[in-house]
Amino acid sequence: MKERLQALKEEAVSKIEEASNVKEIQDIRVAYLGKKGPITEILRGMGKLPAEERPKMGQLGNEIRAIISDKLDEKMEQLEKAAVAEKLKKETIDVTMPGRPVQKGNHHPLTRVVEEIEDLFIGMGFSIAEGPEVETDYYNFEALNLPKNHPARDMQDSFYITEDILLRTHTSPMQARTMEKHEGKGPVKIIVPGRVYRRDTDDATHSHQFTQIEGLMVGENVRMSDLKGVLQTFAKEMFGQEREIRLRPSFFPFTEPSVEMDISCFNCGGEGCSVCKGTGWIEILGGGMVHPHVLEMSGFDSKKYTGFAFGMGPERIAMLKYGIEDIRNFYTNDVRFLKQFNRVNQ
Questions:
Q1: How far apart are CA 170 and CA 146, in angstroms?
Q2: In total, how many domains does the chain have?
Q3: Sign of the C-alpha dihedral, residues 111, 112, 117, 120?
Q4: Residues 78, 151: one domain?
Q5: Where do the Aminoacyl-transfer RNA synthetases class-II family profile domain residues begin and end (predicted)?
Q6: pLDDT attached to residue 298
Q7: E strand or H helix at 110, and its extent?
């Protein structure tokens, strides 16, 4: 029995030294030290030995079990360390290698222009108002001096949802909504940026969905000269201090008198070129004095209060500012187009 135990020890130690992975060590442990292993079977058979030999054989069996167990633990630790070292070697990062470039997003040119206009008018004391894109016929037309069957409604072919609900055709409804909230008490001084919708054929200069910024100022003794001053400040800040403006008579149902504003061409300085079609001027926006009917329908006394309003298209301003020839570029999400507007260079 003694010789058998010594042979099992040498056999187990030899296999442990030859083991190359953790699984083999686990298999050896089960094979030699498990409940059904040969050492356990030998120790269970000690009852057949003379009584004086049993303690010695029991001690020897336990010593051999301890030796095999220690060898197994030692080999297991070596293999685990080797596995960790190999993993670290494979996952080592060469800090001297160039990193992958991080693609940074830019502000969309249209967003950039809208924010620039907002900042400009906030600096002149205007606040920003926002309203629903799904609007009622009353606020979109009637409250702006456009009753049902008014011929001027044909100027804005609309997306109707029901007879009285439509997608707003301009941001002007917020004129009426804001004045109603003031309950006939001035002053009112807002700009209203937002999306608007019209039934239009998309081409290089038209879109069925576009952006508009409405401006409104109502108070006592507000005059056309105030409108001109505000628009002149806007033009110079947006397109350069050398820009000049001119106001031409026009017609809008919600303003009286109404004007359209041109700025001197920033490409030729007013001498005439392809950008301004040889005129030296570029049309930029429309506006005028708020019609008395619009004031009265919103609860203001038109004899006490006057005001002006204007509306501009940020797409047109962005096209002029950045030399963009096709309005559809704003909405096609072409990364090649957007990459041109690097925030570092703007």
A1: 13
A2: 2
A3: positive
A4: no
A5: 111-340
A6: 94
A7: helix 109-123
Contact yes or no for 135/256 (Cβ under 8 A): no
DSSP string, 148-183: TT-GGGGGS---BSSSSEEE-SSSTHHHHHHHHHHT
Q: Does 81 share its domain with 114?
A: no
- pLDDT category at 225 given cuts 50, 70, 90 is very high
Residues 251 and 179 in one domain: yes
CA dihedral in degrees (283, 287, 288, 291; nearest 10)? Answer: 140
Higher pLDDT, 107 or 256: 256
pTM (two decimals): 0.67
Integer angstrom CA distances of residue 230 from 27, 223, 224, 287:
88, 11, 10, 11
Q: Is 256 marked within a binding site?
A: yes
What is the residue range of 31's domain?
Answer: 2-90
| Phi and psi angles of residue 96, each rounded to the nearest 5 degrees, phi first | -85, -10
Distance CA 220, CA 1 (A): 118
101 belongs to a structural domain: no
pLDDT in tens, 8-28: 778 878 888 888 888 888 888
Which of 90, 117, 143 is at the close of a domain?
90
Is 202 found in the same domain as 83? no
Same domain? For 208 and 316 the reply is yes
| Same domain assignment for residues 82 and 155 | no
More confident residue, 13 or 318: 318
pLDDT score recorded for residue 261: 95
Given the structure tokens 């009622």, which residue do they identify? 136
Residue count (the chain): 346
Tokens 């079609």 belong to: 277
Do residues 74 and 147 both lie within one domain? Answer: no
By mean pLDDT, which of 104-108, 116-120, 173-177, 283-287 is the weakest?
104-108
Q: Is residue 96 part of a domain?
A: no
